[in-house]
Each structure stands twice: as C-alpha cells, then as structure tokens.
Structure to design on (212 residues):
C-alpha cells in the first residue's frame, strides 16, 4: 500500500495531510519512541483534531502500516542517493562505504526504523508489518548491487560476508550503549571494522578471517 494515499483519499489536500501525519510519526518515533507516540499524540503534534486523525487512520494498525511504508521509502531514498555518489578519488571504496553507511544510520528514517525494530520484539502486530520492509531493504538496497558497488564487492561468499560484516557491525554499534570514552571507543571500533572488511576483500588467507 502506498504510504501517502488510499483509493478513497486521493485529493491533494488529503495527500498533504497524510504526508504530514507520517512525517510527524517518523519524527516522534525518533524523539519519544514508538510506544509514547500514540495516535493521539501524533494527531496533536500534526495539528489535527481526533476526528481528522480518524478520517485518515481509523486504527493504530492502519497508522503503523502506513508509517512503516513511509519510513522504509525514506530509508531507501537516502540509501540510493548515497550509493549514487562517487567516492573521493584515492579513497578506499570499502572505507568510503562504511563512512557513508555509518552516517546514514544517524539519519532520522534509520533511527526511526531501529526504534520500530526494538519495539517489535514485544509487539506482534508491529513485527508483522516490519517483516516485509526489512526484507525489501535487505534485498533491494544493502543486499543488492548498490551496496556492492559502494564497497566494490563481488558476488561470491567472501565479498558477501565482507559486506554483511561491515553492515551488521555498524548497525550494532549504532544501537549499542558506550558508557565511557564514547568518541574514542567508537573511532577505534570503526577503524577495526574497516580493516576487517578490507582483509576479507583481499584474495589470499585474509589473515585467518576467511577459510575457503
């Protein structure tokens, strides 16, 4: 379903209002969290009455489904724009990809999606609606040619593993809680991620990281 329209609500005004609601939902998921961002809170922050909100989203399920689609559209848009940017001359492609993906993970659509994933652990309705969005991103963006081009990775298991290692370590780091020397520890971890990805991308024994 298109996050910004339904067959009954195709007027420009309705599309704008729905878009404002979904933008507000994304922002509030980041700022106060999924559970605190109730339909009523989102409606108030969007400048809508309860009746106006119900016209566009009669239930929590309807809003969540549209919000997930909206957030996923924004994630894909940002990812595709980043992947289309050429990396600086002389810079290692894998290092550039890691820096780019790390920056993306700080962007509101990515933070909002991470918040939804955390909340979905105890919310079956949300988990169901996230499943297809997670799969689509994994296949079309990170798992497809775009991220492979960013790291200059091929299609064999070694290169797929280097891509996945970088991706999941970065996602874990973005969600982890570093309680002291945060900046220094993060920079050391990012440097190690880059070295590990470079090692996997090289032919040979990859310093024991890969066993053929």
């Amino acid at each position: 379903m298109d996050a910004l329209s339904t067959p009954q609500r195709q007027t420009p005004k309705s599309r704008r209002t729905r878009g404002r609601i979904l933008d507000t939902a994304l922002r509030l998921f980041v700022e106060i969290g999924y559970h605190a961002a109730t339909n009523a809170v989102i409606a108030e922050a969007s400048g809508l009455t309860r009746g106006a909100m119900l016209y566009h989203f009669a239930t929590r399920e309807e809003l969540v489904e549209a919000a997930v689609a909206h957030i996923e559209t924004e994630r894909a848009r940002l990812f595709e724009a980043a992947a289309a940017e050429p990396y600086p001359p002389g810079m290692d492609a894998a290092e550039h990809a890691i820096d780019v993906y790390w920056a993306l993970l700080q962007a509101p659509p990515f933070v909002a999606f991470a918040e939804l994933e955390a909340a979905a652990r105890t919310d079956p309705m949300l988990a169901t609606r996230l499943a297809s969005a997670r799969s689509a991103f994994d296949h079309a963006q990170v798992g497809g040619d775009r991220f492979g081009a960013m790291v200059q990775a091929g299609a064999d298991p070694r290169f797929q593993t280097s891509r996945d290692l970088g991706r999941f370590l970065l996602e874990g780091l973005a969600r982890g809680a570093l309680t002291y020397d945060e900046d220094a520890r993060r920079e050391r971890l990012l440097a190690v991620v880059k070295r590990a990805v470079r090692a996997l991308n090289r032919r040979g024994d990859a310093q024991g990281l890969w066993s053929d």
Residues 97 and 150 are 5 Å apart (CA to CA). The two ends are 43 Å apart (CA to CA).
